[in-house]
Amino acid sequence: MIHSLSEIGWINMIKILSKNIGKYKKASFLTPCCMIMEVLMEVLIPFVTASIIDKGIEAGNMEKILLYGTIMLLMALCSLIFGCLGGKFGAEASSGFACNLREAMYRNIQTFSFSNIDKFSTAGLVTRMTTDVTNVQNAYQMILRIAVRAPMTLIISMVMCFVINAKLSRIFLVAIVVLGIALFFLVKSCMNLFRQVFEKYDDLNASVQENVSAIRVVKAFVREKFENEKFIHAAEKLAKMFIKAESTIVLNAPIMMLVVYGCMIGLSWFGAQYIVIGELTTGELTSLFTYVMSVLMSLMMLSMIFVMLTMSAASARRIAEVLEEKADIVNPKNPVMKVTDGKIEFKDVSFSYKKGSGENTLTDINFTIESGETIGIIGGTGCGKSTLVNLISRLYDVNTGTVCVGGVDVREYDLDVLRNEVAAVLQKNVLFSGTVLENLRWGKEDATLEECKEACVSACADEFIEKMPDGYESRIEQGGSNVSGGQKQRLCIARALLKHPKILILDDSTSAVDTATDARIREAFAKKIPGTTKLIIAQRISSVENADRIMVMEDGRIDAFDTHEELLRTNPIYQEIYETQTKGGGDFDEPHDNKNGREEE
Q: How far is Cα 72 from Cα 78, in angstroms, rounded to an integer?
């Protein structure tokens, strides 16, 4: 469940994030310590300056000038050293914290089931791991440094002002009240705007991701102008929201300067009178001018902290959502650690991607497949073919009913054990950047070159691999962009075969190869993995007609489950599909007569 900020709560959110500080706790502790020492040195310097003026310059005492000058020099040097150390430790703590957050998010995402991932868009997850973490990193560094430095400077400067002259220091109290009220209203007015801004980053990233991943389609249909306009619209919307928020925040600067100059005028006016009557020295007035600037600049820094925290609070919430998301599918307490065979049973299975919506993707599914059988699955787009096979390897859990593999409910297996025995070549074939050999070894990490070659021969991939410049060491670009669709499919099939699975699922995975190659791949399956249960989802009947049985699906239900010959004799849907394909036209989504003789809408 995606939690809102109110559901998670501020305290819980801080706890969730602070768990990831880890080994950077020492740097996180040393940073504010160095900041405190830096502030102490800086704030004491004006006090020493007053002594130089009053006891040295005005008294004409050179020894006092040298003494207090040396003390000032040492204080400045110490302040510089502590400032540098604070910067170093602050950078280490914030960068390390950001690194830990990204690692923790990535680890948790790896445990997500498909239903968990469906709750977050891909673009949303990317934004959370990049932009949002960077915002939190900057805020954390600011908290460790400026959030310590600013209040410390403010407090100590105020104390020193009251030590020098309590009456004049009341001017600062008035300034603090005015600035505090102004800051409160400014932050409150723009807080919601900043929350909305970071949500719009998801839309922007989604537009970029979709365009780049489908750039070939964009260019093929000459849709560059449309995609540009879509991106510009998202970017401009984000810019307008930022401008609106920033336009409110920038009011902080003129209000600050008004108060600063007001304080200086008041200090000059009343300070001059106090000097005349002997209640204040020239050196003390000089120190007060320095302290008033320190106080007001501290307030300015505090206002910046509030702005940064306002911006980063939305990012922190989004990160906490990912870290707190619990995987829907987890291992049982005492999991079964062995899949005995490839027998598959569906008992009264119903499934919906949105639980409780009443719209089932699969309804009342019942069948048994014996180990070693070759089963064809055929039907129109959206009838639930891919959803059905996803339940076998427990990529989703059923809403009702039971899915069994090897006579055991899939929910009782260790997830890794189950998925290692169920190899799937899905509709969207994915290759990773690396060599051909590295991609093949996703199927079996320690596979030898000979094993990889054997799998490629079975998948009819050897013929094009051997023609590549470096053979099995040839590089595959990200997403397999430098190989054709058919070549990608055959590499994915070879990768699955290397697992020597109990169950092999081919989800329309030979759609991009010619009919002759498809037949050779199926023939290799029969010879190389005779004991493996094979489920072949296909759009063309030629790919499944030699299967032991064929499942015909329609509207999330099994319409028929029999041999090719029996289906041709008894099932109107299968007959219609067969006739349209053998006559060279039609597809599964064209209207056809169903069992009752009515036309499918």
A: 10
H or E stretch covering 573: helix 572-582
Q: Which two tokens stand for residue 346?
A: 């569906």
Question: What would the two tokens of residue 595 be?
Answer: 């069992």
Phi then psi dihedrals of residue 468, to 5 deg: -75, 155
**pLDDT tens-digit readout, 364-387:** 999 999 999 999 999 887 888 888
Average pLDDT, the chain: 82
Helices 170-213, 252-276: crossing angle, 10 deg rounding: 160
**Cα-flanking dihedrals φ and ψ of residue 320, to 5°?**
-60, -35
| Residue 346: partners with Cβ closer than 8 Å, 6 or more residues away | 365, 366, 367, 368, 388, 391, 401, 402, 403, 404
d(CA 578, CA 376): 14
pLDDT of residue 88: 93
Q: Let me know: does 251 contact 245? Beta carbons within 8 Å.
A: no
Q: How far is CA 435 from the centre of its chain?
A: 27
Question: How does DSSP classify residue 413?
Answer: B
Q: Would you tell me how many other CB atoms lie within 10 Å of the CB of residue 225? A: 8
428: left (phi over 0), alpha (psi -120 to 50) or beta: beta
Q: How far apart are CA 96 and CA 27, in angstroms?
A: 10
Mean pLDDT calculated for residue range 347-376: 87
Q: At 83, which amino acid appears?
A: G
Lowest mean pLDDT, pick from 236-245, 303-312, 458-467: 303-312
**CA gap 396, 390 in Å, rounded:** 7
Interatomic CA distance for residues 91 and 261, integer angstroms: 34
Residues 6+ apart with CB under 8 A from 550: 375, 376, 377, 378, 544, 561, 562, 563, 564, 567, 574
Is the distance from CB of 100 to CB of 83 less than 8 angstroms?
no
Taking each helix axis from N to C end, the angle separating 133-144 and 146-164, rounded to the nearest 10 degrees, works out to 30
Tokens of 362: 């699969």
- In this prediction, residue 54 carries a pLDDT of 75
| Contact indicator for 399, 437 with CB cutoff of 8 Å | no
> How far is the CA of 126 from the CAs of 81, 202, 203, 309, 412, in angstroms?
39, 8, 11, 21, 33
Contacts of 479 by beta carbon, 8 Å cutoff, 6+ apart:
213, 430, 431, 433
Q: What is the pTM of this model?
A: 0.65
**For position 8, what pLDDT does the model report?**
56
pLDDT-derived band at 216, boundaries 50, 70, 90: low
End-to-end CA distance of the chain: 36
User: What distances in angstroms separate CA 153 from CA 38, 112, 160, 293, one per listed residue?
Assistant: 10, 47, 10, 11
pLDDT single digits (tens) 452-468: 999 898 888 888 898 88
Could you tell me which residues come within 8 angstroms of residue 506 by beta carbon, excluding any fewer than 6 positions away?
425, 493, 534, 535, 536, 537, 538
